[in-house]
Please model this.
Amino acid sequence: MKLPYAEPYKIKSVEPIRKTTRSEREQLIEEASFNLFNLRAEKVFIDLLTDSGTGAMSQHQWAEIMLGDESYAGATSYFKLKNSVETILDMPYFLPTHQGRAAENVLFETLMGHNGDGKIVPGNSHFDTTKGHIEWRGAKAVDCTIDEAFDTTVDHPFKGNIDLAKLADVFEKTPREQIPIVILTITCNSSGGQPVSMENIKAVSKLCKDAGVTLFFDAARFAENAYFIKIREKGYENKTIKEIVLEMFSYVDGCTMSAKKDGIVNMGGLLAFRNEELFRKACTFNIMFEGYLTYGGLAGRDLGALSVGLCESTEFDYLEARCGQVAYLGAKCREYGIPVQEPFGGHAIFVDALKVFPHIPREQYPAQLLGVELYIEAGVRGVEIGTLLADRDPVTRQDRFPKLELLRLAIPRRVYTNSHMDYIAAGLANVLERASSIKSGFAVTWEAPIMRHFTVKLRRI
Ligand SMILES: *Cc1c(COP(=O)(O)O)cnc(C)c1O
Model:
């Protein structure tokens, strides 16, 4: 018999979590105005709101917390991180930042200052904060993702890929000086944690080089992307994750990274460069916005923990258990007839709320309804990726309806066991069973002018 994967660690310290009763949860979610962000975390049994900053650190990372060198400049912990960035990403220059969006802020300030008018930043479904930093400066983020990414019925191993013809078209129609950079997000979070193939990275890199355009990764989930290359792309099955990561980074000029994902730290980020001149320019903004060059808004101990996290997340056994657990939940859901997006991504399972609640109008936020019902059913917290998140059109103020209404269940790294996954899938199955008896969704009673999903207040119809 082929041995199955098993987590390459055992548990030394545990954090108790407590169940609430169904009637308590009914009351709590009503008091929270049916917004899952408003719940106290202690009233959540299994928290799948995000995989960002929610991972469990290893004993080696905790040891680095104790060894943290808090010197303002030139701390030992900084050099440990520098060493990891050099050996794992092969990037000669880097700046620590307090998280991923801070790295984006420094990068875009360096590239276009506050004047992005007419500038275009192509990419594969830019992450919201990336898009925010681009649009806030008056520039435009152009999505060049392959069309297959938006069709859930199509099975494609690399749904994060860039459509080369779309990118070439942007290059052709736009003067070179109007394209400061191309951002390739690995894995592509916005399309469901879908990976980008090495072949595609290489081809995008060549297109950019020929056009004289800088290419950066948004590298939040770079290790999970490398894992999918190893298991899905021909020619990589015998390479180590670290070899694959090195090849991936050899095709780009730098990266922004939210280290709260594959860095497996609770807080942190970085900006890495191959080009010294660009790095020098960015240094000034890093000092202004984040902190001195050798700490960038992080404590020394955070830098040390991240230096170890980068090494651990690029181990195959870790990634096999990590992505294996996400796929385990996906398969369990499929077994119960719960409509989930496939292929399963690296960090989350997405439940198709339009299929669970075909009778609920989209104006009543069916994915939010699914999230609320799952909380009431099982004390599990996911997050709506649907019309609430898509927000209103800035001009017409009408709801914008995205292609799908999804409930995202993001799995924290090294935190939950497969028994928790069984519990989540059973909770979903129970919601599915009574879905047709739920006759209506929600109406908004209060919302902020932008990014309403974080603070929106709802009432049941
Ligand atoms: C989380 C994330 C970011 C932003 O990082 P923060 O650390 O949350 O600021 C950017 N890009 C991607 C792909 C992410 O997942």
